[in-house]
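Thread title: Can someone regenerate the structure for this chain?

I was given the following input by a collaborator and told the matching structure tokens would be attached. They weren't. Posting the sequence so someone can regenerate them.
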Amino acid sequence: MKRLLFNLLSAGLISVGYLSAQITVTAPNGGETWAGASTQNITWTSSGVANVNIDYSTNNGSTWISIVTNYPAASSPYPWTVVGAGPLGSTTCQVRITSTANSGVFDSNANFTIPPSTLTIQYPNGGETFYNGQSRAIRWTSSSILNVNLFYSTNNGSAWTSIATAIPASRTFYTWTVPTISGSQYLVKAEDAANSTVNDGSNAVFSVTTSPANDITKFKGGSRDGYSMDNTGTKSITVTAPNGGESWAGATVQNITWNSTNLSDVRIEYSTNNGSSWIVIENNYPSGPQTYPWTIPGVGTLGSSQCRVRVTSVTDGSITDMSNNTWTIPGSNVTVVSPNGGESYFNGTMRPIRWTSQSVLNVRLEYSTNAGSTWSLITDSILASRTFYSWVIPSGITGTQTRVRVLDRLNYAVKDSSDTNFTIASPPANDITKFKGGSFDGYSSDNSAPKSLLLTSPNGGENWPGASTQTITWTSQNVSNVRIEYSTNNGSTWNLIISTTPGGTGSFPWVVNGAGPLGTTTARVRVTDTSDPTVTDASNGVFTIPPAAVSIQSPNGSESYQNGTMRPVRWTSASVLNVRLEYSTNNGSNWNLIVDSIPASRTFFSWLIPTGSITQQALVRVTDRTDVTVTDNSDAVFSINGLASNDITKFKGGSYDGYSSDVACIEPFAVMSGSRTICSGASANLTVQFTNSSPWSFTYSNGTSNTTLTGITT
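Best answer:
Regenerated them for you:
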């Protein structure tokens, strides 16, 4: 029932008012991709609403499907296990939240995406032979699917028999007891339990036959219980992974899997040339686990797209299977990052060697004092994933032709060395007497030993968004404090980050400054000794700060608000830390402050619209707090109208405090044409237009008591 207040004020002015109940969906809010079967939080804000119904649509709101009913409005968020949207997915999904007590109070949002649901049978996929009563694994892959139903057919798909229902799709396999019915026209099929149009079956038929009689007498020689598992039953092996098309990077751990029957031990091998030759992984491995965790070896700088795995019975070489198709191990590489040429170090000091790598498990480090003619060992083997090693430079080394080299420990053809020479010299004699002026122990750590600074990050190639926190790192010697600056124009000019910070810490957390609406691909950072500006270092290469951007989402034009009410201002942003919000009542000719500074990551602000604002030319504007060129305002004007007085009396029917907090709609539900001043003893005609469904009630007041008309339908 819609409740309108019709107030006769003491001055005789009649006006129309409403009580503000509202719901605002905050997530999903447009642009998201929520995969089916994933759990996502639906969030909202509300006032004057007790319970809500939550629905979703996959067709831009043409039809709606219930998620939950009668859910407490105050209990946002609601964890939703997203329902798949079929084999095509949908880019026009919406969520709608509606007051349970008043369907006129609701909010829905902009479109988001549920990607297509997919399901593919991996095994059995055609050509296999199974035996009655065997346990065999049905395997599949899926996306955007929560549960699957499994079926088998004995007649090439003419009829299907259920195997299991509502199996979690994420399991990817199900142990099936093969039926006792023999035949050569078997198929298996998996389908989305929530949408049978998403399904897949074996690509071709397979066979089920009677198992031969077994000699159950085991013989000695097995490696588990003193006896082999082998017997006279039919033996078989089927490799299930990798089975073709995979890309398994060197140095990663991947599971080789297979199915087998009546086998005790297997030999596992791999080939990088499509089976022309084979390399042993394990000579004698138990068949029972049917999985082997393999640390992938690198295969050189070129990699290989002709890889296969083969699994063979140890006792019978004729029982074997390999990957159905070839798969890839990508190329291995290592790159020396520093020292990379031009540096000057002192022997006896510790300096970091840094590198990057791909498809490499361990590396060997060496150095040369004659530009690479000969090499000396630094360390024989260290994890490539560490990416650095603290090298104590030998005290007897001096020269201007020093280089370092990094090699793949298993393949010395994969290597890299410093691009050019660097220098190692003997340090000058130190005056160990400290002098006053330091800021830590009463004396400076500066002395006559050489000073050095080496910036290690960012050092070129990074992408550091504005407003993100990134760590600037460096190494130093005999430097008490440093000044840190950044440049957005490759060092032509520099901007201060911090004027002084301890040099010995070697790091500083920088909240990255935005670089304007165009961003920059030529950013650098510089660290400098505060007491000696000649001791300085900057990034070796440029890095990127992406463009800063803000965009008003709402109000964005044509809305109608009432002054004195609270409405959300919403925006999106990139590379912006804080924003300033303003509004205009004259289409942007002048701007008034809403809030001076608020974190951009909040994405909304609850704006209490000033009571004196009445305009048809309203706009809002959001601006980067530190760069006024990064700004956006409503695409078109919206209106702000007057708000009449409210009857705050709740009525019975709620489910929490004895009274419902629902009282009216989010928007006015009655409009009075014009206004009248009524003197004592006079009368006037007013027209009231109701919206939403009937019946309505109509309440007016003479200032001391209310009169209500009910059952209004026309």
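The chain has no helices and 57 strands.
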